[in-house]
Amino acid sequence: MATRKTGSRRIVVDGVAYRWRIRKRGTYSQTGYGCGKVHLTVELAEQPGAILMLYTDRPHPADWGTKVVVPVLPSDVAGWVREALAAGWAPAHPGSEFAHRPVNHDCR
After folding, report:
1. Is residue 87 part of a domain?
2. Domains in the chain: how many in total?
3. What angle do CA 56, 87, 55 make, to 5 degrees?
4. Of these four, 15, 29, 65, 78, which has the most CB atoms within 10 Å of its CB?
5. CA-to-CA distance for 97 and 24, rounded, in angstroms?
6. Dihedral in degrees, nearest 10, Cα atoms 31, 34, 60, 54
7. What pTM was computed for the model?
8. Does residue 80 sit in helix, strand or coil?
9. In whole angstroms, what is the distance from residue 85 CA to residue 31 CA?
């Protein structure tokens, strides 16, 4: 299953082009409980295979409990892609999504 191109951004990590996307509207579980987090998807830009689903620890901006919004930067996504590749994500091989919870290296 491919990620929608609408609203996706292109990023090149170690010479490989990917597309990443954050859903524009948060789901109920991301906005209605006071502890929603930002999730995003990543896939190869040209010939998508397995999708990477990143479950971050960043508070979702639409969540009523969010006090400080921490933006997701392209440098964050590049680091998370490298982590997922090291954890076994094979983006060129078709298959089910690869779920990954990035390690928080940031002290923002």
Report:
1. yes
2. 1
3. 15
4. 78
5. 20
6. -90
7. 0.79
8. helix
9. 29
Residue 45 included in any domain: yes
Domain boundaries, position 52? 9-100
- Written as tens digits, the pLDDT of the chain (108 aa) is 556 666 788 999 999 999 998 876 655 455 556 556 778 889 999 888 899 999 888 776 666 666 677 888 999 999 999 999 999 999 999 888 999 988 764 433
Q: Is 103 exposed, middle or buried (0-12, 13-18, 19+ CB in 10 A)?
A: exposed
Q: What is the DSSP pairing of strand 98-100 with strand 52-59?
A: parallel
Do residues 89 and 100 lie in contact, with contact meaning Cβ atoms separated by under 8 Å?
yes
Question: Phi and psi at residue 10, in whole multiples of 5°?
Answer: -90, 140
Q: Is residue 1 part of a domain?
A: no
